[in-house]
UniProtKB/TrEMBL annotation:
CDD domains: HAD_YbiV-Like
Keywords in alphabetical order: Hydrolase
Organism of this sequence: Limosilactobacillus pontis
Assigned GO CC terms: cytosol
Signal peptide: none
Name of this protein: HAD family hydrolase
Amino acid sequence: MIRAVATDIDGTFLTNQRDYDRQRFAQVYSAMNSRDIRFIVASGDQYYFLRSLFPNMADQLAFVAENGALTIDRGEELHCGRLNMNDVQAVIAYLDRILGVNFIVCGRRSAYVRASDPVYFQEGVRQFYTRVKTVQDFDEIGDDVIFKFALAVPPARQEKIAWGINTSFAGIIRATASGYGAIDLIIPGMDKSHGLRLLLDRWGISPADLVAFGDGENDLEMFALAGTSYAMNNAPVNVQAAASHVIGTNNDQAVLAKLEQLIE
Protein backbone atom coordinates (compact mmCIF):
# COMPACT_ATOMS: atom_id res chain seq x y z
CA MET A 1 0.00 0.00 0.00
CA ILE A 2 1.35 3.43 -0.94
CA ARG A 3 0.68 6.17 1.58
CA ALA A 4 3.57 8.56 0.91
CA VAL A 5 5.93 9.40 -1.95
CA ALA A 6 9.31 11.10 -1.53
CA THR A 7 11.30 12.31 -4.50
CA ASP A 8 14.69 13.86 -4.97
CA ILE A 9 14.72 16.88 -7.29
CA ASP A 10 17.90 17.41 -9.34
CA GLY A 11 18.60 14.49 -11.65
CA THR A 12 15.37 12.81 -10.56
CA PHE A 13 12.18 14.88 -10.71
CA LEU A 14 13.55 17.74 -12.79
CA THR A 15 14.86 17.41 -16.32
CA ASN A 16 18.32 18.70 -17.18
CA GLN A 17 16.57 21.96 -18.10
CA ARG A 18 15.57 22.09 -14.41
CA ASP A 19 11.85 21.94 -15.01
CA TYR A 20 9.04 19.38 -15.12
CA ASP A 21 5.68 18.88 -16.82
CA ARG A 22 3.60 21.00 -14.45
CA GLN A 23 0.22 20.16 -15.93
CA ARG A 24 0.98 16.45 -15.80
CA PHE A 25 2.15 16.69 -12.19
CA ALA A 26 -0.98 18.64 -11.21
CA GLN A 27 -3.06 15.72 -12.45
CA VAL A 28 -0.88 13.22 -10.59
CA TYR A 29 -0.98 15.27 -7.42
CA SER A 30 -4.76 15.58 -7.59
CA ALA A 31 -5.04 11.80 -7.92
CA MET A 32 -2.66 11.34 -4.98
CA ASN A 33 -4.74 13.71 -2.86
CA SER A 34 -7.91 11.80 -3.64
CA ARG A 35 -6.21 8.65 -2.34
CA ASP A 36 -4.71 10.44 0.71
CA ILE A 37 -1.14 9.84 -0.50
CA ARG A 38 1.36 12.38 0.83
CA PHE A 39 3.92 14.00 -1.48
CA ILE A 40 7.35 14.85 -0.04
CA VAL A 41 10.09 16.84 -1.74
CA ALA A 42 13.38 15.40 -0.41
CA SER A 43 16.39 17.26 -1.76
CA GLY A 44 19.76 18.74 -0.99
CA ASP A 45 18.49 22.02 -2.41
CA GLN A 46 17.52 25.10 -0.44
CA TYR A 47 13.98 25.15 0.95
CA TYR A 48 13.15 28.49 -0.68
CA PHE A 49 14.24 27.21 -4.08
CA LEU A 50 12.20 24.03 -3.65
CA ARG A 51 9.10 26.06 -2.78
CA SER A 52 9.58 28.07 -5.95
CA LEU A 53 9.21 24.90 -8.02
CA PHE A 54 5.67 24.38 -6.74
CA PRO A 55 4.26 27.93 -6.52
CA ASN A 56 0.60 26.97 -6.40
CA MET A 57 0.86 24.17 -3.88
CA ALA A 58 3.99 24.72 -1.77
CA ASP A 59 1.96 25.25 1.39
CA GLN A 60 0.29 21.88 0.87
CA LEU A 61 3.54 19.92 0.55
CA ALA A 62 6.16 18.52 2.89
CA PHE A 63 9.83 19.33 2.35
CA VAL A 64 12.97 17.58 3.53
CA ALA A 65 15.41 20.23 2.39
CA GLU A 66 19.18 20.75 2.59
CA ASN A 67 19.70 16.96 2.62
CA GLY A 68 17.71 16.54 5.82
CA ALA A 69 18.82 19.58 7.82
CA LEU A 70 15.43 21.26 7.48
CA THR A 71 12.04 19.52 7.58
CA ILE A 72 8.81 21.43 6.97
CA ASP A 73 5.27 20.08 6.72
CA ARG A 74 2.70 22.33 5.05
CA GLY A 75 4.52 25.46 6.17
CA GLU A 76 5.25 24.28 9.71
CA GLU A 77 8.88 23.77 10.66
CA LEU A 78 9.39 20.40 12.35
CA HIS A 79 13.16 20.37 12.58
CA CYS A 80 16.12 22.61 11.83
CA GLY A 81 19.67 21.37 12.41
CA ARG A 82 22.36 23.63 13.81
CA LEU A 83 26.13 23.49 13.64
CA ASN A 84 28.20 24.95 16.45
CA MET A 85 29.73 28.22 15.20
CA ASN A 86 33.21 27.18 16.37
CA ASP A 87 32.84 24.10 14.18
CA VAL A 88 31.59 26.25 11.30
CA GLN A 89 34.70 28.41 11.53
CA ALA A 90 36.95 25.34 11.70
CA VAL A 91 35.34 23.84 8.60
CA ILE A 92 35.70 27.14 6.70
CA ALA A 93 39.39 27.32 7.60
CA TYR A 94 39.89 23.71 6.48
CA LEU A 95 38.09 24.22 3.15
CA ASP A 96 40.04 27.39 2.44
CA ARG A 97 43.22 25.30 2.42
CA ILE A 98 42.00 22.97 -0.35
CA LEU A 99 42.94 24.17 -3.81
CA GLY A 100 40.20 24.16 -6.43
CA VAL A 101 37.29 24.03 -3.98
CA ASN A 102 34.52 26.62 -3.84
CA PHE A 103 31.78 26.40 -1.26
CA ILE A 104 28.49 27.77 0.02
CA VAL A 105 27.66 28.19 3.69
CA CYS A 106 24.00 27.22 4.05
CA GLY A 107 21.80 28.81 6.68
CA ARG A 108 18.14 28.89 7.66
CA ARG A 109 17.63 32.43 6.40
CA SER A 110 20.02 32.43 3.45
CA ALA A 111 22.92 30.81 1.68
CA TYR A 112 26.22 32.69 1.69
CA VAL A 113 29.05 33.07 -0.82
CA ARG A 114 32.05 35.36 -0.74
CA ALA A 115 32.56 38.29 -3.08
CA SER A 116 36.00 36.86 -3.87
CA ASP A 117 34.54 33.62 -5.24
CA PRO A 118 34.82 33.14 -9.02
CA VAL A 119 32.02 34.80 -10.96
CA TYR A 120 31.04 31.52 -12.65
CA PHE A 121 30.61 29.91 -9.24
CA GLN A 122 28.48 32.75 -7.87
CA GLU A 123 26.29 32.65 -10.97
CA GLY A 124 25.92 28.88 -10.70
CA VAL A 125 24.86 29.10 -7.06
CA ARG A 126 21.85 31.18 -8.02
CA GLN A 127 20.54 28.35 -10.17
CA PHE A 128 20.07 26.27 -7.02
CA TYR A 129 19.49 28.85 -4.28
CA THR A 130 16.71 31.42 -4.25
CA ARG A 131 18.06 33.29 -1.22
CA VAL A 132 21.77 34.06 -1.53
CA LYS A 133 23.83 36.76 0.13
CA THR A 134 27.28 37.79 -1.04
CA VAL A 135 29.58 38.74 1.83
CA GLN A 136 33.15 39.94 2.03
CA ASP A 137 33.83 37.42 4.77
CA PHE A 138 31.75 34.68 6.40
CA ASP A 139 32.03 36.52 9.72
CA GLU A 140 29.24 38.71 8.33
CA ILE A 141 26.75 35.84 8.57
CA GLY A 142 25.78 36.99 12.05
CA ASP A 143 23.24 34.95 14.02
CA ASP A 144 21.84 32.85 11.18
CA VAL A 145 21.55 29.12 11.93
CA ILE A 146 24.12 27.25 9.82
CA PHE A 147 23.36 23.62 9.05
CA LYS A 148 25.20 22.64 5.86
CA PHE A 149 28.05 23.36 3.46
CA ALA A 150 27.75 22.77 -0.28
CA LEU A 151 31.03 22.23 -2.14
CA ALA A 152 32.02 22.35 -5.79
CA VAL A 153 35.13 20.21 -6.16
CA PRO A 154 37.28 18.82 -8.99
CA PRO A 155 35.50 15.54 -9.87
CA ALA A 156 38.75 13.60 -10.06
CA ARG A 157 39.50 14.51 -6.43
CA GLN A 158 35.96 14.20 -5.09
CA GLU A 159 36.43 10.94 -3.16
CA LYS A 160 39.78 12.03 -1.70
CA ILE A 161 38.39 15.38 -0.56
CA ALA A 162 35.35 13.71 1.04
CA TRP A 163 37.60 11.22 2.82
CA GLY A 164 39.79 14.01 4.21
CA ILE A 165 36.79 15.93 5.53
CA ASN A 166 35.23 12.85 7.12
CA THR A 167 38.54 11.97 8.76
CA SER A 168 39.16 15.50 10.07
CA PHE A 169 35.61 16.20 11.26
CA ALA A 170 34.28 12.81 12.35
CA GLY A 171 31.16 13.26 14.48
CA ILE A 172 30.83 16.94 13.50
CA ILE A 173 29.99 16.84 9.80
CA ARG A 174 29.75 14.14 7.15
CA ALA A 175 30.61 14.51 3.48
CA THR A 176 28.11 13.00 1.06
CA ALA A 177 28.23 13.14 -2.73
CA SER A 178 25.30 15.16 -4.05
CA GLY A 179 26.29 15.08 -7.71
CA TYR A 180 29.22 15.01 -10.12
CA GLY A 181 31.83 17.27 -8.58
CA ALA A 182 29.45 18.20 -5.76
CA ILE A 183 29.72 17.37 -2.06
CA ASP A 184 27.36 18.33 0.75
CA LEU A 185 28.64 18.51 4.31
CA ILE A 186 25.77 17.56 6.59
CA ILE A 187 25.28 17.05 10.31
CA PRO A 188 25.71 13.32 11.09
CA GLY A 189 22.34 11.62 11.48
CA MET A 190 20.51 14.45 9.70
CA ASP A 191 20.22 12.95 6.25
CA LYS A 192 17.06 12.67 4.17
CA SER A 193 15.88 9.61 6.09
CA HIS A 194 15.90 11.65 9.32
CA GLY A 195 13.42 14.16 7.95
CA LEU A 196 11.31 11.46 6.37
CA ARG A 197 11.03 9.61 9.70
CA LEU A 198 9.82 12.80 11.36
CA LEU A 199 7.11 13.20 8.74
CA LEU A 200 6.05 9.56 8.71
CA ASP A 201 5.81 9.47 12.52
CA ARG A 202 3.76 12.68 12.45
CA TRP A 203 1.32 11.18 9.96
CA GLY A 204 1.23 7.68 11.44
CA ILE A 205 2.61 6.10 8.26
CA SER A 206 4.91 3.08 8.21
CA PRO A 207 8.15 3.33 6.18
CA ALA A 208 6.94 0.18 4.44
CA ASP A 209 4.27 2.34 2.80
CA LEU A 210 6.79 4.93 1.54
CA VAL A 211 7.92 5.04 -2.09
CA ALA A 212 11.16 6.92 -2.79
CA PHE A 213 12.79 8.18 -6.01
CA GLY A 214 16.41 9.30 -6.30
CA ASP A 215 19.59 9.38 -8.33
CA GLY A 216 22.46 10.17 -5.94
CA GLU A 217 24.46 8.81 -3.04
CA ASN A 218 22.65 11.26 -0.77
CA ASP A 219 19.50 9.22 -1.52
CA LEU A 220 20.87 5.94 -0.17
CA GLU A 221 19.56 6.42 3.38
CA MET A 222 16.16 7.31 1.93
CA PHE A 223 16.22 4.11 -0.15
CA ALA A 224 17.10 2.07 2.94
CA LEU A 225 14.12 3.53 4.80
CA ALA A 226 11.48 3.23 2.10
CA GLY A 227 9.49 0.09 1.48
CA THR A 228 9.94 0.60 -2.25
CA SER A 229 12.64 2.64 -3.96
CA TYR A 230 13.26 3.64 -7.56
CA ALA A 231 16.65 4.75 -8.88
CA MET A 232 16.90 6.71 -12.10
CA ASN A 233 18.64 5.15 -15.08
CA ASN A 234 20.99 8.16 -15.02
CA ALA A 235 22.06 7.33 -11.44
CA PRO A 236 25.50 5.86 -10.63
CA VAL A 237 25.72 2.07 -10.60
CA ASN A 238 25.95 1.82 -6.80
CA VAL A 239 22.81 3.91 -6.38
CA GLN A 240 20.92 1.76 -8.87
CA ALA A 241 22.08 -1.36 -7.01
CA ALA A 242 20.68 0.00 -3.72
CA ALA A 243 17.18 0.57 -5.11
CA SER A 244 14.30 -1.87 -5.39
CA HIS A 245 13.86 -0.93 -9.05
CA VAL A 246 15.48 1.13 -11.81
CA ILE A 247 13.30 3.29 -14.04
CA GLY A 248 13.96 5.71 -16.91
CA THR A 249 15.87 8.96 -16.78
CA ASN A 250 14.99 12.33 -15.37
CA ASN A 251 14.77 13.72 -18.90
CA ASP A 252 12.14 11.06 -19.64
CA GLN A 253 10.07 12.36 -16.69
CA ALA A 254 10.23 8.78 -15.43
CA VAL A 255 9.08 9.74 -11.91
CA LEU A 256 5.80 11.12 -13.24
CA ALA A 257 5.35 8.09 -15.48
CA LYS A 258 5.89 5.68 -12.59
CA LEU A 259 3.55 7.64 -10.31
CA GLU A 260 0.85 7.50 -12.98
CA GLN A 261 1.24 3.71 -13.02
CA LEU A 262 1.26 3.38 -9.25
CA ILE A 263 -1.89 5.41 -8.61
CA GLU A 264 -4.01 4.40 -11.59
